[in-house]
Amino acid sequence: MNYQLELRHFIYFLAVAEELHYRKAAEKLFISQPGLSTQIKQMEEILGTQLFVRDKKKVSLTPAGEYLKKEVEFILNHLEQTKKQVKLIGEGQLGEVRIGFLGSAMQNVVPNLLLGLKEKFPTVHTTLEELSNRAQINAILADRLDLGFVRLSRVPKGLDVRPVFEDTFSLVLPGDHPLDEANFKNINQVADEDFILFSQDYSPMYYDTVLSICEDSGFVPNVSHKSVHAQTIFKLVENKLGIAIVPTTLQHGFQMKVKFIEMKKIKQRAVLSMVWKTDNRNPALQKCMDLLMKL
Amino acid sequence: MNYQLELRHFIYFLAVAEELHYRKAAEKLFISQPGLSTQIKQMEEILGTQLFVRDKKKVSLTPAGEYLKKEVEFILNHLEQTKKQVKLIGEGQLGEVRIGFLGSAMQNVVPNLLLGLKEKFPTVHTTLEELSNRAQINAILADRLDLGFVRLSRVPKGLDVRPVFEDTFSLVLPGDHPLDEANFKNINQVADEDFILFSQDYSPMYYDTVLSICEDSGFVPNVSHKSVHAQTIFKLVENKLGIAIVPTTLQHGFQMKVKFIEMKKIKQRAVLSMVWKTDNRNPALQKCMDLLMKL
DNA sequence: ATAATCAATAACTATGAATTATCAACTAGA
DNA sequence: TCTAGTTGATAATTCATAGTTATTGATTAT
């Protein structure tokens, strides 16, 4: 005698409220009329209110039933929507991917990913945050980020990495520097200059790589300044406070009195990788990764 | 294996989503852990989506589950509200009463009813419509009105009537008419004047009653004008186009150069009755009627 | 190792939804 | 005023399945 309301009740109720006829409603529901009768009666008992008036030969709604009908229509409709949404999210057709990236990834990889997402999965939303390598790794481990774009060769256990973009390095020189594309041969030519590099803790891999480039040429660079922003580095070069070595694509999007000399011959590459938590179950992330494989 | 989603599923789901722990959730729900496990699994099957990730020693929500949790919270909350509302409407504590009335009922009975409702059942709303006797009867029969205030002695089958207010009749005379409260004795004194009365089809009972008043005095009135609005009748009297006989309380609320002489001695009374459909199940109407019994 | 704790699985029980069969109340034709 | 044919409500029964107990396998902690 202490029953609970169930969706079944609502569906049955709505059928009767629409047909105002038990037998016809029962037929529509593919159940027997007595079953329907008892369920409606039970429902009235649960709610503590008469919902239908069964008068001589005709069924009609009470005001409470009238009210409930509207509500049930809303609830069942809302439910149907919810079911669809849940399914879509489960399939990764819908949802959110939280992306972190190094500033240098914004030149190329991240915009392409966003464009691809917009085209193939327009219902997948993204949040973007520019973060250092370390900050991205921490955020991913703490489940505050789904996907990161970093320059690291090794990542903590539980995370997966995969290179997505390889870039040559370019020398960054003041606009009026004697060296140019034509007379540049070897990085030894600038061995005595001051160097401006990205900070180690912003991207140790980059730092190590640049040092190894110099090492391969037989000198140790004199690092006078370190920074975390390309903008700052270029500004320092422009003001003749030193020269820099940066990933080639970084040059796009800045308007500075500096010149870039791409060093195609040196073997080191600036590798941008994506990182994610191995057990991340965000289905929208899967769609993202599929897309990145193709870029 | 073709199950239906039920509210039970939602309640179970929410418990697990909150506890993120099957055994604890099951305890909270007073069911066994295996039962809970199978129900959640079934739910995931119905929705076609994983809702929880059961990893080494810890349960967590998938994005789809995260979304569903919010929706379920909303739905269950909305449902609880609805249940309460339905109960209240069933008890007549809430709802709407559609009232029709003759203009003359607005002087006294209807305002008192509204005041009483506001005090005792502030959640019962009303809609008001000034309508003729006939229009009210039709509207009540067609279920467009719950309650009417009419001047009729007989009503069609299926409707109930009950007098709610008895009023004496008053003579309405131009302001400068020789007759007044002091020298008035008998309606015979105005037997030769022109009479202005409410139209028969607006209220046949009133019409008959006025005629019977005259008849009792031994004359047949000369009816020069008929109208449906007190305002019009008073205006005509003011302009000396005739005199009128109206229910006494009608005089309130008008500012006219007319004088009223209450005829307490004549036996006829202007009876205002309430009418309603015998089988009207609007519980808010019951509250209305209870109130009117006490007025 | 051992014990403890997690969720999942298997076999079983028992609740109660749904069925069939029937009834009582009413309507509409002969 | 008889049927015959509606209507929804009851009663007895069947049967699906939610929920139970008992157990397992996997993992963690001591």
Explain what this protein looks like in three dimensions.
Chains A, B: Keywords: DNA-binding, Transcription, Transcription regulation. Chains A, B: Pfam families: HTH_1 (PF00126), LysR_substrate (PF03466). Chains A, B: It comes from Flagellimonas aurea. Chains A, B: InterPro entries: LysR_HTH_N (IPR000847), LysR_subst-bd (IPR005119), WH-like_DNA-bd_sf (IPR036388), WH_DNA-bd_sf (IPR036390). Two copies of one chain form a homodimer. By secondary structure, the first copy, chain A, is α/β, with parallel strands linked by helices. The first copy, chain A, has three domains: 7-90, Arc Repressor Mutant, subunit A, CATH 1.10.10.10; 99-164 and 272-294, Periplasmic binding protein-like II (D-Maltodextrin-Binding Protein, domain 2); 169-268, D-Maltodextrin-Binding Protein, domain 2. Helix content of chain A is 41%, strand content 24%. The first copy, chain A, is built from nine helices and twelve strands. In chain A, strand 1 (52-55) and strand 2 (58-61) form a beta hairpin. The radius of gyration of chain A is 33 Å and the shape is rod-shaped. The first copy, chain A, starts with 6 loop residues before the first helix and ends with a helix. Chain A binds chain B through residues 4-8, 47-51, 53, 55, 62-64, 67-68, 71, 75, 78-79, 82-83, 85-87, 89-91, 95-96, 279, 281-284, and chain B through 4-8, 47-51, 53, 55, 62-64, 67-68, 71, 75, 78-79, 82-83, 85-87, 89-91, 95-96, 279, 281-284. Chain A binds a DNA duplex (30 and 30 nucleotides) through helix 3.
